[in-house]
Design brief:
With 159 residues, this protein is an alpha+beta fold. The protein is built from 4 helices and 8 strands. The longest helix has 13 residues. The protein is elongated, with a radius of gyration of 21 Å.
Length: 159
């Protein structure tokens, strides 16, 4: 779905889907709702939502008649976080936004990072040749680069 809202383009085809949520009703049920959280390349968030004829997303199709409908809804970062806290499992929230204050895992912070495909390919190639067995994953490779840049091999907190 693609729509211009307040002179900004929102497009589910070019944005990155971060998460989705369904209310548990069967897809053909008039109460069925599915919401998808997206982030644009500009860092803006939006929800693409679809709902049956008896939901807030329904569209009027005649006099007192409704059919399933869908919307694109731009939201702020704070609204995206709130949506995720309400709708998603803690582990999924953590992967998107970092530590959820309600989460059990407080040792690590999740980040979302998009990189050019050519860099991904070069990193994977380097990791295959890497002799240092501590660095086996892209995540560990990025952590080692951050530590090196911060001159912090011990991983101490910075303020």
């Amino acid at each position: 779905m693609k729509k211009v809202i307040k002179n900004k383009l929102y497009n589910t085809q070019s944005a990155t889907q971060l998460a989705d949520w369904e209310n548990g009703c069967p897809r053909m049920d008039p109460l069925y709702v599915k919401e998808n959280l997206y982030i644009k390349k500009t860092g803006e968030y939006f929800i693409h939502a679809y709902g049956g004829a008896a939901t807030q997303y329904a569209e009027q199709s005649g006099n007192n008649q409704f059919t399933a409908g869908e919307i694109l809804l731009p939201i702020t970062f704070e609204e995206a976080e709130s949506w995720a806290k309400e709708k998603l499992q803690a582990e999924v929230y953590d992967k998107i936004f970092g530590i959820n204050p309600d989460s059990e895992n407080k040792e690590e912070v999740g980040i979302y990072l998009k990189i050019p495909a050519v860099l991904d390919k070069k990193m994977r190639f380097k990791l295959q040749r890497e002799k240092d067995q501590k660095i086996k994953t892209i995540g560990n490779y990025i952590i080692s680069l951050i530590k090196k840049d911060l001159n912090d091999d011990e991983g101490d907190d910075h303020e």
